[in-house]
Amino acid sequence: MACLYLIPSMLGENDPDFVFPEKNFKLINSLDCFIVEKLRTARRFLRSVGYKKNFDNIEMFELNKHTQSTEIEKMISPLLNGVDTGLISEAGAPAVADPGSELVLMAHRKNINVVPLIGPSSILLALMSSGLNGQRFAFHGYLPVKKNERIKAIRELEKRSQQNKETQIFMETPYRNMKLLEDIIENAKHSTLLCIASDISLNTEFIKTKTIIEWSACIPNIHKRPTIFLIHTF
Question: Could you tell me the pTM of the whole model?
Answer without folding.
Answer: 0.90
